[in-house]
Prior knowledge:
Largest sheet: 6 strands, mixed
Bound molecules: zinc ion
CATH architecture: 3-Layer(aba) Sandwich
Number of helices: 6
Helix content: 25-40%
Number of strands: 8
Shape: globular
Number of domains: 1
Radius of gyration: 17 Å
Amino acid sequence: MTEQELKDYLASSGAFLEGHFLLSSGLHSPNYVQCALALKNPAWAGRMGDALAKAWQGPKPELILSPAMGGLIIGHEVARAFGVDFVFTERENNVMTLRRGFLLPQGAKLIIVEDVFTTGKSTLETAEVVKAAGGEVLGAMSVINRMGAKTLPFPSVSLLKLGLTAMPPETCMLCRTGLPVVKPGSRKF
Length: 189
Ligand SMILES: [Zn+2]
């Protein structure tokens, strides 16, 4: 899969939107990525999982772990590509936790998989869960990386890097043009 192929697919699936968006951080952005729309197609989700596994240069993981909800589908597909199991963390009272009887074998080497790296916060929280459970984080993966110059404290791979273009409303050029700001995901289909 070439980067252009992926970009074209993200646009045609409606996952990559251009316009004037209000992000959950309160910043305004000329683009928005709703990865769930790209991952709704199982064949494409599988291709992305394969591409991530192929791009990984480190040792083979023993387990793939994703934070719910965003990482569930792509994490599962990466696990399929590596031929290993997939487990997930979720927030309970806002604290990232392993539930549902998921246990990490002592010393298990795993990769954390997300749909989008935005601030890196959920990846770091998931890494803390791994450490507390006695596992080892080999690295992290995502379909899209929007972290800009920020990096994670372990090796990471993404299929597509998007520049950080978000800005506070006070300095937003799009607000000055009078284009209405849209909160992504607020429209029900
Ligand atoms: Zn704006």
